[in-house]
Amino acid sequence: MSATSAVAPRKPSATTRRERWERHTQTPLIALSVVFALAYAVPILFPAADGRLLGGAAWVEWGVWAAFAADYGTRLLLADRRWQFVRSSPLDLASVVLPLVQPLRLLRLVSTLLLAGRRVRMASQVRLTTYVAGAVLGLLVFGSLAVLEIERSSPTATIRTLDDALWWSFTTMTTVGYGDLTPTTGLGRLLAVALMLSGIALLGVVTANIAAWFVARFEAEDRLDHVNHRAILDLTAEVRDLRQQLAALGLPPEAGPPAVPDRPADPTSG
Questions:
Q1: Contact assessment for residue 68 and residue 77, using Cβ atoms and an 8 Å cutoff
Q2: CA nearest 98: which of 86, 109, 87?
Q3: Of 215, 223, 147, nearest to 185 (Cα)?
Q4: Contact predicate 121/143, CB 8 Å
Q5: If we measure between CA atoms, which residue out of 200, 193, 212, 211 comes closest to residue 147?
Q6: 34-77 confidence digits (pLDDT tens)
Q7: CA 199 vs CA 32, 140, 177, 180, 208: distances in Å
Q8: Of 107, 183, 118, which Cα lies nearest the Cα of 142?
Q9: Measuring CA to CA, how many Å separate 33 from each of 14, 30, 148, 152, 234?
Q10: Are 96 and 108 in contact (CB under 8 A)?
Q11: What CA–CA distances, in Å, run from 216 to 211, 219, 222, 223?
């Protein structure tokens, strides 16, 4: 038996299996997050809908959250160092546990959005600009739906329609805050704080991205100037060496290289 055949094939590591699992489940989980968005919007946009429709939407919400929770559990089981995996993703664990501790619909929304955003960030084909644009749009839409659901039943509410909620979310995320529409409930104000902080964070990401782009352009121009300057120095050195060689041959520097004599005419030609 040869030494090559005696060596047993190596089994794929747990980390490799986890990465393969994450790669294969990214698209289905992102699609489920879209389904969750539709199910979350139905009771808010159509509060007088049939009870079976509203109940089905609630079951869809819990089902999508359960899928993300099962995904987290599977990744934990496939992790090579499970405790390190838990410590490296505390937000994922909190997103899975919070709806169980207090089954509020808003917590279920927040936890599912956090878990879905985590999987989107892990996708290699998603660029930073696409992720930021999607995050802004998601916060705007879900923030509007959430504040409308919370504030609509309050007797002192100023946000009672979807248009008002969208306008309030936009002004809150951009930290403009005109003050014409304000939440009056404690949960609504807590949501407003979350939108403000999220808007500031996203604005910082956009600003940093634009600044990094300008810095990269300036650095590229500086590198090009440096290369051109170096090429000019090398060319100057070559001309200096050529003049020294001409001087060694007894030719003046102004004189160019010796002319090549004309070839004699071929007597057989013509």
A1: no
A2: 109
A3: 147
A4: no
A5: 193
A6: 888 888 888 888 887 788 888 898 899 888 888 888 988 888 88
A7: 25, 10, 12, 19, 14
A8: 107
A9: 27, 5, 20, 25, 60
A10: no
A11: 9, 5, 10, 10
Q: Which residue has the tokens 């927040």?
A: 110
Residue 210, both tokens: 């634009």
d(CA 73, CA 87): 14
Name the amino acid, one letter, at 81.
Answer: R
Contacts of 105 (CB under 8 A, 6+ apart): 40, 61, 149
Angle at 40 between CA 23 and CA 27, to 5 degrees: 15
Instruction: Quote the CA–CA distance of 29 and 184 in Å, as a whole number.
Output: 35
- What are the distances in angstroms from CA 74 to CA 146, 207, 263, 267? 30, 37, 84, 92
Model confidence at 4, pLDDT cuts 50, 70, 90, reads very low
d(CA 148, CA 157): 10
What is the model's pLDDT at position 59? 92
Overall average pLDDT of the 179-203 stretch: 86
Q: Structure tokens of 268?
A: 């057989």
Residue type, 153: S
CA-nearest of 102, 113, 97, 194 to 147 is 194
Mean pLDDT rounded to a whole number for the chain: 78
Q: Which of 85, 66, 100 is nearest to 17 (CA)?
A: 85
| Alpha carbons 82 and 94: distance in angstroms, whole number | 16
Specify the length of the chain in residues. Answer: 270
Measured distance CA(182)–CA(188) in Å, rounded:
9
